[in-house]
Amino acid sequence: MAGTVPGAQAIARAAAVLRRVTAAGTTGVTTQDIAQHTELTRPTAHRLLTALQAEGLIDRDDATGLWLPGPELYLMGTIAASRYDVPALAHNIVKSLATRTEESAFLSVQRGDETVCLLREDGSFPIRSFVLSEGVRFPLGVASAGLAILSFLPDDEIDAYLERQTKLSEHFGRPHSVAAIRTRIQETRDRGYAVNPGLIVNGSYGLGAAVFNAQGRPEWALSITGVGFRFGPDRLPRLGRDLLSHAHQLTAALAASGR
């Protein structure tokens, strides 16, 4: 697309910069970080950041030099929410999942080759994992939410995705080789939910279950995360059942709402 539509490459680069800024949330992000994650040169990244700042889409903290989401993004998001406000529908279900399991519970959505966390609710257990929070993105197949969604896509889409993703093991380690992901996809299909046994951060476990749209396509995921000793063999099956139950409940609620 970038080679056939005039200006598409510039738009794609600006979109990549915006995604990186929003993924950092309220903590902010440096120009160097954005350049590294978008595979742009630092001068190119800075030019795009400056242009986006001029349009109000991002802000720059004068004290720290960090880039943050801007007011125009808020206004655009408020308007778009009327079409995509799944978190409002899912909030009570995610909260119930956190209460039931006592772990941190999340709602994520698929956007292209990634999942984006939309909602987080913490459970009552005082030790928590902070791998995931609102706005954080992971490639499909890395975090438990993305693995759950990827596992229930059609086989040809899985094959095409894995052909595109040539650097997952480079960025996330050997457990994210194509062969390893394919093994976890089959395990997820057999089990019904995905398990991430500390593959992103050592000792931080996650479970994910796909949530389907009215056409039966996995578009969202519920997940829970916590410290590893809370996900032992004596507790894991019950956590999985609770997760699947809440995912089915949200799937039904989305279908009833026409989404």
From TrEMBL:
GO terms for molecular function: DNA binding; DNA-binding transcription factor activity. Residues 8-71 form the HTH iclR-type domain. Residues 72-256 form the IclR-ED domain. Transmembrane segments: none annotated. The keyword Transcription regulation applies. Pfam families: HTH_IclR, IclR_C. Keywords: DNA-binding, Transcription, Transcription regulation. GO terms for biological process: negative regulation of DNA-templated transcription. It comes from Microbacterium mitrae. PROSITE patterns: HTH_ICLR, ICLR_ED. This is IclR family transcriptional regulator. Gene3D superfamilies: 3.30.450.40, Winged helix-like DNA-binding domain superfamily/Winged helix DNA-binding domain (1.10.10.10). It comes from the Bacteria. The keyword DNA-binding applies.
